[in-house]
Design goal:
The protein is α/β, with parallel strands linked by helices. It is 25% helix and 27% strand. The chain has one domain: Double Stranded RNA Binding Domain, CATH 3.30.160. The radius of gyration is 17 Å and the shape is globular.
Length: 198
C-alpha cells in the first residue's frame, strides 16, 4: 500500500474485493460506528498534489479541482439520505479527499513520484518498454466526526495499468479518470458494510 502521509493511520485499512478493472482498494471503518447516525457531511476542498508547470497552468489545476469538487457533491447527493452542510454538529461527518499521485514500478508503488495531472498527460509515454514503470493514480479519503475529530473511516484507491494508459494526454482526461476514482473512493470510505479482505 502506498503511503503519502495524507491519511492519519496506514496500518488500519485492509484490502477490499472490487470488480473495477486495474483498481485496488483498501478500507477501514471504525468498529462500533453506526453510519446511519450521520445524516450530514462537510466536504473539505479536494486536495490535489499538483503545482503549476510549463505544461500545466494554475487555471488547469483550478479547473480540475472545481470539477472534482463537483463530483464529490454529486456522489453525496446521489445517496439521497445525506445532506451537505458547512458547520460541525451532531450527526455531521467531515470528508477529506486527496489525489496524491503515484507511480508503480516492478517492485512497489512509490507515492509522490509524479504529480497527478502531469502523470495523466505523460501516460502515453509509459506504454513503451517492457520494464517501464506503470502509471498509477492514488486517491485517499478520510472521514472524521465533525465534533470529536475522531477518524471513523479511511479509504485508499489506486488505479493503474491499461485503464490509465488509454486516457488521452490532457487535463480533461485526467479529470474524467479522477472523477471515477474519487467516486469509488468516497463510496468505499463511506460504505457501511463490514470490512472484508479479498
Amino acid at each position: 500500500m502506498p503511503k503519502s502521509g495524507f491519511l492519519p493511520n496506514y496500518s488500519v485499512p485492509v484490502p477490499m474485493a472490487t470488480s473495477e478493472a486495474d483498481t485496488r482498494i483498501w478500507r477501514y471503518c471504525k468498529a462500533g460506528v453506526n453510519p446511519g447516525s450521520y445524516t450530514a457531511v462537510i466536504l473539505d476542498p479536494i486536495y490535489l498534489n499538483q503545482n503549476a508547470t510549463k505544461d500545466i497552468s494554475p487555471e488547469a489545476i483550478s479547473r480540475a479541482q472545481i470539477a472534482l469538487q463537483d463530483s464529490m457533491v454529486s456522489a453525496v447527493n446521489s445517496r439521497g439520505n445525506i445532506k451537505i452542510v458547512n458547520q460541525p454538529g451532531p450527526g455531521v461527518a467531515r470528508i477529506s479527499v486527496g489525489i496524491t499521485g503515484a507511480e508503480s514500478s516492478a517492485d512497489s508503488l512509490q507515492p509522490w513520484s509524479f504529480t497527478p495531472i502531469g502523470l495523466a498527460m505523460n501516460a502515453a509515454a509509459y506504454a513503451g518498454g517492457v520494464n517501464s514503470k506503470t502509471p498509477a493514480m492514488l486517491v485517499e479519503s478520510k472521514i472524521t466526526d465533525s465534533q470529536t475529530k475522531e477518524v471513523i473511516g479511511e479509504g485508499l484507491v489506486t488505479i493503474q495499468g491499461e485503464s490509465f494508459r488509454t486516457g488521452g494526454g490532457s487535463v480533461e482526461s485526467f479529470v474524467a479518470m479522477a472523477k471515477k476514482v474519487v467516486k469509488v473512493a468516497m463510496e468505499t470510505s463511506a460504505d457501511p458494510r463490514p470490512t472484508s479482505a479479498k
